[in-house]
Design a protein that fits this description.
four-stranded mixed sheet, 467 residues, five-stranded antiparallel sheet
Length: 467
């Protein structure tokens, strides 16, 4: 009985520490005893029933045979005479259960049973581990860094260790053993070698879950997250919205004095976060997504889901971002291809007209531009007229064909002159910048080196300040 008591205690330990239920272990033991008994004393076709009392751990073993008139396989059949020796009431076709003492198991059988049981327990443990963590996929869990190598780290997440690859760690973040770390469960693999849990610190989903944990309005569903785009260690953009008229979705995420977003930034090792408002209107959403830059106009092409964006001259670099980062993140956030041009380039290339300028701060420039253009046209016409008169007077030809400068060229020259003198900013030579989700490397080419200057975001990140 003492041995049985220890066995029951061991079952309880397995259940508490490894999450393996008693019933699973008992079923595994039954199967192990059955296989071992058949292997050592009967044939594989034999029928054996093993019962184990879950309270006392008492084991009972029975051989099951069918009563037949003529025995062909003695491992599964029993003659009528033999059956009636056990019980006179048996007849052909009845099933006889013959009890066998578990003491029959020799040392070899006991070792085999133990091996089979261990294997079954390992399988049960893998299954239990998988069932527990498959529900945590795409969620955040907190673990302790157990081991740090050049190519990976192992994070203890309770009953097992999770694999954190070097390329899934935030760039610049130094992990140390014993450190508590929030990780995003990106994969739960249930393979032949066991359950492997892969975690990440670079997934956009990590940012989303951190906001859900930090912002009560998001957790309660009052404020919702539409999308997240991220370049880990540098910058993330998150689009939020709400159906409640009295709730500011951006303010809710930022929190009092920026405390909520600061906590997330600290968890992400100083990664900056742009919080923008989602809109069902694509043009508005794209304009919001390009923050912190201002946007003058957004033209939408529904067919290829692309957008042409015009920004102030002095904010072209800000809209594109260093190595195209801001535009790239905006494209991922919105799901639209984005072509960005400065106001002066858009006008000079005929892609945008002065009549389309609706931004308040450009009204003065528009009026001045139109006024100067008119004056230039008048002056040019007078000069052309004088030239015509001189040519006609000096020429013997009856007909003189004069090709004057096109009015469009005059206007374009005037526009360039005015924009150069306007307070907005000098005209910048730019290349067409089409941002697609999979075009990251395009922004690292030499053609875009002009955008590599450091951009001061302080003006747009005031909510990160202590005040």
């Amino acid at each position: 009985m003492a041995g049985n008591k220890k066995f029951i205690e061991a079952l309880e330990i397995l259940e508490n520490e490894r999450g393996i239920k008693k019933e699973i272990v008992l079923d595994a033991l039954k199967e192990a005893l059955e296989k071992s008994y058949k292997k050592n004393y009967l044939s594989p076709d034999s029928i054996v029933r093993v019962d184990i009392d879950p309270k006392t751990a008492k084991i009972s073993l029975h051989e099951i045979k069918t009563v037949v008139e003529e025995v062909e396989d003695e491992d599964i059949e029993l003659s009528l005479e033999e059956a009636q020796e056990i019980n006179p009431n048996y007849k052909i076709g009845d099933v006889v259960e013959n009890a066998v003492s578990p003491d029959i198991f020799g040392r070899l059988a006991a070792v085999q049973t133990k091996q089979i049981l261990r294997q079954k327990i390992r399988e049960a443990e893998k299954e239990s581990l998988y069932n527990e963590f498959i529900d945590k996929k795409d969620e955040i869990i907190t673990g302790i860094v157990d081991r740090v190598e050049d190519r990976f780290a192992i994070v203890n997440i309770g009953k097992t260790g999770a694999f954190l690859a070097a390329n899934q760690q935030i760039p610049g973040e130094k992990l140390v053993e014993g450190q508590h770390l929030k990780v995003y469960v990106s994969e739960v693999d249930h393979g032949t070698k066991g359950t492997h849990i892969v975690v990440s610190r670079t997934e956009p989903g990590l940012v989303k879950r951190l906001f859900e944990m930090e912002v009560p309005e998001i957790y309660e569903g009052i404020v919702e997250i539409f999308s997240v785009s991220r370049e880990a260690g540098e910058r993330s953009k998150i689009a939020v919205y709400t159906k409640a008229d009295d709730i500011d979705p951006i303010g809710s995420c930022v929190g009092p004095k920026g405390t909520r977003v600061k906590n997330i930034v600290e968890e992400l090792h100083g990664e900056m976060i742009d919080i923008v408002e989602y809109s069902k209107d694509a043009a508005t959403f794209i304009s919001n997504a390009l923050a912190p830059s201002n946007v003058i106009n957004v033209s939408i092409n529904e067919e290829d889901k692309s957008a042409f964006v015009v920004v102030p001259d002095n904010q072209l670099s800000l809209a594109i971002g260093k190595r195209g980062q801001n535009a790239r993140l905006a494209a991922r956030l919105t799901g639209w291809k984005i072509d960005i041009k400065s106001l002066s380039d858009a006008i000079s290339e005929g892609l945008y007209s002065l009549e389309e300028v609706k931004h308040e701060e450009y009204k003065d420039i528009e009026e001045e531009m139109l006024a100067e253009t008119t004056a230039e046209e008048v002056e040019a016409k007078e000069e052309v007229a004088e030239a015509v008169e001189e040519i006609v007077e000096e020429s013997d030809l009856n007909e003189v064909v004069i090709e004057a400068m096109p009015n469009q060229d005059i206007v374009e020259e005037a526009v360039e002159e005015i924009i150069e003198e306007a307070p907005a900013a000098p005209v910048q030579e730019t290349k067409k910048t089409v941002v697609e989700e999979d075009d990251e490397e395009d922004y690292y080419d030499d053609d875009y080196s002009k955008y590599d200057e450091e951009i001061d975001y302080d003006e747009f990140d005031k909510y990160y300040d202590e005040d």
